[in-house]
TrEMBL record:
Organism: Gemmatimonas aurantiaca
Domain NadR/Ttd14 AAA: start-end pairs: 2-164
Protein name listed in UniProt: NadR/Ttd14 AAA domain-containing protein
Domain of life: Bacteria
One Pfam family linked to the record: AAA_28
InterPro entries in the cross-refs: NadR/Ttd14_AAA_dom, P-loop_NTPase
Amino acid sequence: MRIAVSGSHGTGKSTLITELAAVLPEMIAIDEAYDVMLSDGAAFGERLRVDDFEALCEREVELVDASNGDLVVFDRSPADYLAYMVALDADAPSRKLITDVGEAMEMIDLVIFVPVEEPDRVRVTPELPRLRKRVHALLREMLVEDGWGWGVPVLEVRGSMEDRVHQVVKHVASLR
């Protein structure tokens, strides 16, 4: 089963994955493409640009395609990086990239959508708050509302981290 934890920056995705790993020992956690590329020696500027997000998106597609295991959980999905590209420049993604993202998303069995909540649960002020809200809205459209037609099941989690973990564990158990 492939699960992607998706959401804008500063919503608690990585923390959720860490907490899930503590209660789902069989889970294989896959770092987000940004961290994978950094560990592979890639260099990014202080602020990511559209072409950076394109490279990240392509790498995330590769990570999904190469994954296997009973319970694989991705920190981000290809849709996340596509949303950042669209938020920065709606005309930036090529048709090929959109097709590749769609094919990768169809390989994912469940998306855990971590929204920006009101009041915001993030204790530190995230960088680029406008971009954060724009990406949140795009991901909601793409995933929750299935506006891009990928048809991937989505579980939107809310509440405390304990509540979020409980929601995911209960949902995953129902799918097994």
